[in-house]
Amino acid sequence: MDSSGQCIYCKRSGIPFSREHVIPEAFGTFGPKTLVLTEAVCADCNQRLGRDLDQILARDTFEGLLRAEKLTPRRIKKDRFKARRIVIRVPDEPRFTDFRGAQMTIDWQTRKPRLLNQVIVRDEEGRLHSFTRGEMADADDKLFRDRPPGSIQVIGTLPEEVKELQHMAASKGVRFKSWKPTDVEPPPASREPTTPLEVEGFIDEAVWRAIAKIAFNYLAKIEGSAYVLDSNFNRIRAFIVGEFEDRALVRYSKRPILANETSRYKTNEMHLILFERQGYGLRGRVSLFNSFTYDVMLCANLGLIYSIKSGHAFDPIRKDVSKLVGISRSLKIGRN
After folding, report:
1. Residue 278 parent element (H or E)
2. Which residues in the chain come in under a pLDDT of 50?
3. Is 124 exposed, middle or buried (0-12, 13-18, 19+ CB in 10 A)?
4. Rounded distance, CA 93 to CA 101, Å?
5. What is the reported pLDDT for 122?
6. Separation of CA 62 from chain center
7. 157 vs 9: CA distance, rounded Å
8. What pTM did the predictor assign?
């Protein structure tokens, strides 16, 4: 790769640089074919963007849930990362007994769902609401007052936190018959080979920026770091580092990347990245695990008309990388 001696994000030079994976390492490595930028991203930007963007993409998105399901767990130190964009719940069905509507989270040491300590409330319309300790302060007091027996319960795995949640609920008007937690067995439905969970979430600016970073890194790897330092890319660069908001630069696309696929029918679960000319502009496309597809406007006006395009498929299971051929409307995977 052509090295310019400048960081492609902050544009500083004469500072320490570090290796930057085009696709965040949490989403897999690909042996000697792993695409890595060297002498292109400074250590400061690598650390800051990894903390502010890559970690969120890997743990607090739908793609993060796919990562938990499909990739082998790695040994990591226990941390206090709190998911804010993705909520996992046990379905509100009788077969889940006391766990109906309970919030779950992903334990990143095991990659398995784990029950959160929480207060579960069924409102007057029959809908379930759950609140963790951090959410109780903002919970509407009216939801807890004058509720019939059995409509409010505190559930969890840590007795001390369960008691704390009981006191927080009591401060909002809940009356408990007993302050002593009762041990309950997980419902039989939880021991089935597959247990369906409900997932809902949203995509915010940090996720859009993380996706844009992947497309920008890929362009820098293919065309060289000196290429993306051009002022034509200042807008997408500033968006990635968080200097301004511009949601129009990254959009969710219902159009799949590969030929013969639809939004519901996919032929593989590889990561797909490409960039190609779109009129005078340059557009990137990113799909992790070939799930959601994002279009990234890398540059709205490159000026000169010339052909520029490239695409790759990254298989995190086989640890392989393949070229995408036929860049335009129909893409196919060409293995080497």
Report:
1. strand 271-278
2. 1-2, 336
3. exposed
4. 8
5. 94
6. 6
7. 44
8. 0.87
